[in-house]
Amino acid sequence: MHFKIRPAKKEDCKEISRLIMVSRSNVELERDGFCENPFFQCLVAEVPEEHKSKEGNGIGKGLLCKVAEVGKKKECVRLQLSVLDWNTPSRDFYAAKGAQDLTVSEGWHAIRFDGQSLDNLANEAAKI
Ligand SMILES: CC(C)(COP(=O)(O)OP(=O)(O)OC[C@H]1O[C@@H](n2cnc3c(N)ncnc32)[C@H](O)[C@@H]1OP(=O)(O)O)[C@@H](O)C(=O)NCCC(=O)NCCS
């Protein structure tokens, strides 16, 4: 195995911010993940330069297994994630590792409030 999986450090936030494709800057990630009661935890795979390739060297499986291990130690009973419909390589990968597709088996929809709809909900709270 030519990589090491370890808990993320504050210094990793710039790279994490680039990878996660949501509007969270490295400064916000540093604040939210490395405070007294962090909102999230993160693992990173450290790969020596000479072993870097796009995929297929066990890193995806390594990260998934490590997340499962961390969860089990905290007595979690499920590992749930979101994957886009078109991302068949990832969907096939999760299926090959034993995941069920809840959209297929149970018809779940992903529901989100953000921007104005989230503001509206929060503002309504003051009137309750
Ligand atoms: C899908 C992805 C996570 C797989 O990670 P990877 O590092 O390429 O895969 P690994 O080398 O860890 O594969 C390990 C195992 O999974 C299997 N596997 C990998 N890709 C697979 C696929 N598309 N379908 C079925 N099995 C797959 C391998 O055959 C191997 O099997 P083994 O455990 O029996 O040896 C990776 O290709 C990826 O990061 N894709 C782009 C980013 C992305 O979309 N991530 C998911 C967002 S939801």
UniProtKB/TrEMBL annotation:
UniProt keyword annotation of Transferase present: yes
Gene Ontology molecular function, alphabetical: acyltransferase activity, transferring groups other than amino-acyl groups
Pfam families linked: Acetyltransf_1
Annotated InterPro entries: Acyl_CoA_acyltransferase (IPR016181), Diverse_Substrate_AcTransf (IPR051016), GNAT_dom (IPR000182)
Keywords: Acyltransferase, Transferase
N-acetyltransferase domain: residues covered: 55-95
Keyword Signal: no
PANTHER family associated with the record: DIAMINE N-ACETYLTRANSFERASE, THIALYSINE N-EPSILON-ACETYLTRANSFERASE
Family: Belongs to the acetyltransferase family.
Protein name, UniProt field: Spermidine/spermine N1-acetyltransferase family member 2b
Lineage: Eukaryota, Metazoa, Chordata, Craniata, Vertebrata
